[in-house]
Amino acid sequence: MIELSNVTVSHPMPEKRRRVVLQDVSLRVERGELVYLVGPTGSGKSSLLKLLYMDLMPDTGVVRVAEYRSDTMKPSRLPYLRRSLGIVFQDFQLLPDRNIFDNVAFAQYVTGHRGKAVKNKVLQVLSRVGLSHKYRQYPHQLSGGEQQRVVIARAIINDPWIIVADEPTGNLDPTVADEIQRLLIGLHRSGMTVVMATHDYRLVRSFPARTLAVMNRRIVEVDPNSLSG
Description:
This protein is α/β, with parallel strands linked by helices. The protein is 31% helix and 27% strand.
């Protein structure tokens, strides 16, 4: 499903220097797993997620996501990779001038779908996240938790096999964060692979799963119950 082999990633700095974020990292995630990525801000969690949808390419090593490989990826193939992933961001990135229906439908339109089939699919996924009754409202009319549910609906409308979530509960209070996490776990239990970056250790302890800590440019598997903070 997902495999990183001896991957090193660095970011440019002034004076032509580079800061190494991940060094010689190898990792395998099987189909249907739920995996947390934990670690302090700036440790490389978001960089690792960007490697999965190939918004970032490794300096050395290979990233493989299903049949897609970073060392053979052509720009023309990137949209096909990203359509097979559902990406959930912390800051929602909803279109403020479109209602909830159109925000979710947009993910179908860009893949060429039109007509009644789109309407049925949008209402289906909005029902799945508990928002079918608010499809005519606009993002600013929703709470933060509801907006994140819309983001998840948009992420799953094309039936991805991997959900990539970057701090999806970071802007939410604990009660709402738990609701969003239960929704993601429900998707995982339906068969989706979920890779989620988070700094909310309380959430990881409350909903334990395989947990990988990004630290000192490496990835180490840890016991979720050992996390403090």
